[in-house]
Amino acid sequence: MIPATLPANQTDRQPAPAARSVGDLLRSWRARRRASQLDLATDAGISPRHMSFVETGRSQPSRELVLRLAERLQMPLRERNALLHAAGFAPLYSERSLSDPALGPAREAIDAVLRGHEPNPALAVDRRWTMLAANRAVAPLLKGIAPDLLAPPLNVLKLSLHPAGLAPRIVNYADWRSHLMARLKRDIDLTGDPGIIDLKEELMRYPVPEHARLQKAGSLPASLMVVPLMLDFGGAVLSFLSTITVFGTPVDVTLSEIAIESFFPADAATAQALRQSFPATAN
Fold first, then answer.
1. Which residue, 51, 59, 218, 229, has fewest beta-carbon neighbours within 10 Å?
2. Which one, of 9, 254, 2, 263, lies nearest residue 126 by Cα?
3. Could you tell me which of 5, 63, 52 has the C-alpha nearest to residue 26?
4. Mean pLDDT over each residue of the chain, to the nearest integer
5. pTM for this structure?
6. More confident residue, 89 or 276
7. Of the options 3.40.190.10, 3.30.450.180, 3.30.1360.200, 3.40.980.10, the CATH number for the domain spanning 101-281
């Protein structure tokens, strides 16, 4: 289900960030985590004076200290490598292509999760929401979508909110869009990835579909515990709840950035429609 090699115009690697000093990076991440120098110094077991010297470039941190600071700041693995590089050390965490034989067991695990979720839809994405794989229950939901939106690299959020994508068919568009934007904000807070920032800005420029212009986010019934995805599917409304699965304790950048989103029927009618519409996936 995950191809042995990604399409030629799709990549699971991301460009390296522009060179910055270790002090600049630490200040930036400390501000993102809303931590003072004293807070970070205390957490890392060093003096505030030493912390100040590291940030201003008056002291060169050891590799051990760089990793300790990165851990305390909860930096993603990609950004920990960048911090090590800025401090003059080799990256610690590998970044392999999904086609690398070393990631074979991980690809098999993803494939098993996706296949085992049928007839319910599920897909795997990287941290910039590029779809890496999907099970057979996803394709029927995408019929009628503009071909350019389905060409690799296929971005799941663009596909969802673009006027030529799923947007006209999302019944609760205002609530679903608000949910996705909140997730993007969390992703930006976590990673600081410029690519995710650019993605959010592009999505915010998409026009609101005609049927959703009078909708207001937060208008769902109070009885609902989560925001469902409600899709118009041939005149019937399919309602889904979703969960996110990630690899536990990854030490590879690529694996650390993969998430599997699994959609579950939110009501009996949706469950029955999936079984009837996608019988080939129910085996």
1. 218
2. 254
3. 52
4. 90
5. 0.86
6. 89
7. 3.30.450.180
